[in-house]
Specification:
The complex is a heterotrimer of chains A (about 350), B (about 280) and C (about 240).
Chain A: H1 2-27, H2 30-56, H3 63-79, H4 84-106, H5 111-128, H6 133-136, E1 148-150, E2 153-155, H7 158-181, H8 183-193, H9 202-231, H10 241-254, H11 259-280, H12 289-308, H13 312-326, H14 329-337, H15 339-348
Antiparallel strand pairs in A: 1-2
Helix pairs in contact in A: 1-7, 2-7, 2-8, 2-9, 2-10, 2-11, 3-4, 3-5, 3-9, 4-9, 7-9, 10-11, 10-12, 10-13, 11-12, 11-13
Chain B: H1 2-32, H2 39-55, H3 62-83, H4 89-111, E1 126-128, E2 131-133, H5 135-157, H6 159-169, H7 171-176, H8 181-203, H9 214-227, H10 233-254, H11 259-277
Antiparallel strand pairs in B: 1-2
Chain C: H1 7-12, E1 19-30, E2 33-39, E3 42-44, E4 48-52, H2 59-66, E5 74-79, E6 83-86, H3 98-103, H4 115-120, H5 137-149, E7 155-159, H6 167-184, E8 187-192, H7 195-201, E9 204-209, E10 212-218, H8 219-224, H9 226-232
Parallel strand pairs in C: 4-8, 4-9, 6-7, 7-8
Antiparallel strand pairs in C: 1-2, 1-3, 1-5, 9-10
Classes of the chains: A mainly alpha (about 350), B mainly alpha (about 280), C alpha/beta (about 240).
């Protein structure tokens, strides 16, 4: 009974969300449309990264590089006479292919080693761009990227892009959702969460990790491709290390391995960053204030979420929801009574992932 | 010959600075098994605080010392935030990423976006094999060698150092033996902060730093630490030297713009080599 | 199974001066499940006591509670002297040398000279500079025992002495424990799944089942007890 009611509620919610998504671009100002498009693009990237972090339990600090590779692929092809649509389709394919090649050796790394390895990939990307100026425009970048055209359909206004992006968001979220609910997906997720994850069978895990990594790069690539056409100009400044860190923050805020988490995290962080920019920009204030504010706030949000809500906003909300529905007052009381004993269980068996606290 | 000597000596002294950062990584990793992403930030704080103190008229020596102490204190605070309470290792790693961008925000707020430098201890350049060498290089070499000896001795030979290593080797057994694992972790973060601070104090007069140089300093330090599998302070020193010298030779004989890419490619190769050498999970 | 002695009796005896370690109605909970339901045991000065029982009966929980790793929900622990704990799975410091492993046992105080330990276990002498992680299981068990002994304990609690070791190695280490008990008067609380071994070398024993002390008495009596023999000794003897 309750399950069916829940399903009904959630399908209503999906329909309502869909309607709002469709209606929003009609009402938004041009600045807000730009934010709306950005939220969509970031959601696509974060959905991929979230799979990687939630499944394999691994942190990639190179996602902005994949976003950048997608952008450059689309921009370079469009500027070299390819049709914009072909350029856009090539963006995720090229990015995924590169990620696949990088991933074969790199995914042998885990934890901090993978984090630093992917960060190195990102820094190499940023170091290579200025060295290949004839193709990439160097540090100045590429401009005058033609606008996007799909068959007879010209996509030029912000509103057009908003619809395009959110259609892609929908597709990526469906793909991500299918992976989360697929049988290997569930297994892998359990493994990422479990303490003894390291002991799981090697070959299959490696294969799925590589698949996840490649797919997350493809997501970043398509988002980057759309970004190039939307802004009309790409330069290395658009893909700093901080953007990779931002993507990780969005995943953590929303909740690793959840599809809705990607959306919530991307939307929340993008909007916060926008609000801070508006607040911090004023002739009387120092010009670096918006950056200071957003870096500072990102850091505080990241640390606060990890310390207080390790499963992210969506995770915390859904467990609260479940608790409110399932827990009778009696069992609630019992659970509270045992809090201390529970924490000592956690401490009983130290393992690789847990640092033991002092008694 | 002159150019070679110049590149070599510059490489050695820059390499020693990377070694100091690498030792910070090793120290914190050995005790807590956390890789501190914010290690480069300690160097930025060390250098920038020295700059401000010197500007306020505090003499050389005192300024540097105060800055190193401040970096140690920042290390302690970062440690409390990153490993206080019960928290999984991966979460600690991501928290240190947050601390690193927080440091960038603070650095930008206080010191702005222009590169910061100050003159090191005044003195004439001197000449070796026809190469002009700044006196600051000599100070770098002496200061880091003293610190290396102290750390290697402290870790490998003293009872306290062994107790610190025991924390990472087997935290449960360390607690059974009466070692306060959490406190040891915080001490490691404090020392790691001071080591990073010293690195910043030494390198800022040689090459001006901006608020966001922590990432590149940090990753080079990490690369050096990886040479010793993040656990060997001795190999970390060697790693720092290799990276410092390689960087100068690539920049000098090939192209300065390739220096970063080469260093990073070398890092990836090292990481993969380590992953192969250490069985799965061992490096976690 | 029926108790051969009432728990009231054993609780009364706690006040007597001959006991070096005792628990009174110890209760430990893991979340909603109860791991120990009011466990009362005691170890006399210089006594060798066994705690036997099947997997998951609460043996390791009891030891971890005794050494302060787990906090009990209720009950008391009385310790008239120093307790050292040799944990299950030996838990040595794999990256440190044998020497360092042993020395760190004296972290709480006392002499840090490992020489007396090498007298006790001469086999370890030639391994003193080797990484402990590279030793055989038996050698690691000796290192773990030495490390515990460095604290100069009045009672040493050994968790699963025989786990993963060859029978010959086990009997060798067990012999050392008996010797130690005789010479230094160190009391031993031996927690074992291998009931045969435990009952053979101790004088008194407890049988723990599902977090209760089901049975206690002299080891020689328990060896002859039909219920114990059926459950833990495979009907042999």
């Amino acid at each position: 009974m309750r399950i069916r009611a829940n399903r009904k509620i959630s399908s209503y919610a999906v329909i309502a969300a869909g309607m709002i998504t469709l209606a929003l671009p009609l009402t938004l100002s041009s600045t807000n449309t730009e934010i709306y498009v950005t939220v969509g693009l970031y959601t696509i990237v974060v959905a991929g990264l979230s799979l990687l972090m939630g499944f394999a339990g691994q942190v990639s600090l190179g996602q902005a590089a994949f976003y950048g590779i997608g952008s450059y692929t689309a921009a370079i092809m469009a500027l070299h006479g390819w049709s914009p649509l072909a350029a856009l389709i090539a963006a995720p394919i090229t990015t995924a292919f590169l990620a696949f090649l990088i991933g074969i050796p790199l995914l042998r790394l885990k934890g901090h080693a993978l984090a630093f390895g992917t960060l190195a990939v990102q820094l190499i990307f940023l170091a290579v761009i200025p060295e290949t100026a004839s193709l990439t425009g160097g540090s100045i970048g590429l401009s005058a990227i033609p606008s996007l055209r799909i068959g007879p359909l010209a996509i030029s206004s912000g509103r057009d892009y908003a619809y395009l992006v959110w259609i892609v968001v929908l597709v990526t979220l469906i793909i991500a959702r299918n992976i989360v609910h697929s049988r290997p997906g569930r297994g892998l997720r359990a493994m990422a969460a479990s303490v003894s994850g390291a002991s799981a069978t090697g070959v299959e895990v490696e294969r799925y990790k590589l698949k996840d990594f490649t797919l997350s790069a493809a997501f970043a690539g398509i988002a980057g491709g759309i970004y190039a056409f939307f802004i009309g100009y790409v330069s290395p400044d658009a893909f700093p290390v901080v953007l990779s860190i931002e993507f990780v923050i969005m995943v953590v805020v929303g909740g690793m391995g959840t599809v809705t988490g990607a959306l919530v995290g991307a939307a929340l962080i993008t909007v916060i960053s926008q609000v801070l920019t508006t607040l911090g920009t004023s002739p009387s204030l120092p010009p670096q204030l918006p950056t200071v504010l957003s870096l500072g706030v990102y850091a505080v949000i990241l640390v606060a979420i990890l310390r207080l809500l390790p499963s992210g906003l969506v995770g915390a909300f859904s467990s609260l929801w479940k608790k409110a529905q399932a827990a009778s007052p009696v069992s609630q009381f019992k659970a509270d009574e045992n809090v201390e004993a529970v924490s000592s269980v956690d401490k009983e068996e130290p393992n690789e992932f847990t640092l033991v606290d002092e008694v | 010959m002159t150019a070679f000597v110049e590149y070599l000596l510059t490489g050695v002294s820059r390499g020693l600075v990377f070694s100091l950062l690498a030792m910070g990584f090793v120290l914190i990793y050995r005790v807590t098994r956390v890789v501190n992403f914010a290690q480069g930030a300690f160097a930025i704080f060390g250098g920038f605080i020295t700059y401000s103190l010197l500007k306020a008229g505090i003499p050389h020596g005192v300024s540097e010392l105060l800055a190193i102490l401040a970096a140690g204190l920042i290390g302690l605070i970062f440690g409390i935030i990153a490993i206080g309470g019960d928290i999984p290792l991966l979460a600690s790693l991501v928290i240190t990423i947050g601390l690193s961008i927080f440091s960038e925000a603070i650095g930008m707020l206080i010191w702005g976006t222009t590169p910061i430098t100050y003159s090191g201890l005044a003195g004439h350049d001197f000449v070796i094999f026809g190469a002009f060498i700044q006196r600051q290089y000599l100070i770098v070499v002496i200061a880091s060698l003293v610190v290396f000896v102290a750390v290697l001795y402290g870790f490998g030979r003293t009872y306290f150092g062994k107790a610190m290593s025991a924390c990472a080797s087997n935290p449960y057994a360390a607690r059974l033996s009466g070692i306060n694992v959490k406190r040891m972790g915080l001490i490691a973060f404090t020392l790691g902060g001071a080591l990073g601070g010293l690195a910043g104090v030494l390198i800022t007069p040689l090459s001006p730093l901006t608020y966001n140089a922590d990432i590149s300093l940090g990753i080079t330090g990490f690369a050096a630490a990886i040479v010793g599998g993040l656990t060997s302070p001795g190999l970390a020193v060697l790693g720092g030297l290799v990276f410092g010298i390689a960087e100068q030779f690539v920049a000098g004989y090939w192209s300065p713009s390739n220096e970063t890419a080469v260093a990073l490619a070398l890092l990836i190769v090292l990481l993969l080599w380590q992953a192969k050498r250490v069985p799965a999970g061992g490096l976690e | 199974m029926k108790s051969t002695e009432s728990t009231v009796d054993s609780a009364n005896r706690l006040n007597s001066h001959d006991s070096v370690l005792a628990t009174i109605d110890l209760v430990v909970r893991y979340g909603v499940s109860v791991a120990l339901h009011g466990v009362s045991i005691h170890v006399g000065k210089g006594e060798m006591v066994a705690l036997i029982g099947p997997n998951g009966a609460g043996k390791s929980t009891l030891l971890n509670t005794l050494s302060g790793i787990i906090r009990p929900a209720s009950g008391r622990i009385v310790c008239n002297g120093k307790l050292a704990h040799v944990p299950e799975g030996r838990q040595i410091f794999p990256d440190l040398t044998v020497d360092d492993n042993i020395c760190l046992g004296a972290y709480r105080g006392g002499s840090r000279d490992p020489a007396p330990m090498y007298e006790l276990f001469p086999q370890l002498q030639r391994l003193q500079n080797r990484r402990a992680g590279g030793l055989s299981g038996g050698e690691q068990q000796m290192v773990a025992i030495c490390r515990a002994l460095m604290a100069n304990p009045d009672v040493i609690a050994v968790d699963e002495l025989s786990q993963g070791l060859a029978p010959l190695v086990v009997s060798d280490i067990a012999r050392h424990l008996v010797e130690l008990n005789k010479q230094n008067g160190t009391a031993v609380l031996l927690v074992e799944q291998n009931a045969q071994l435990a009952l053979n070398i101790t004088s008194r024993a407890y049988v723990i089942e599902n977090g209760h002390i089901g049975l206690e008495g002299r080891s020689s009596d328990l060896l002859r007890n039909p219920a114990v023999r059926a459950a833990y000794l495979g009907g042999v003897r």
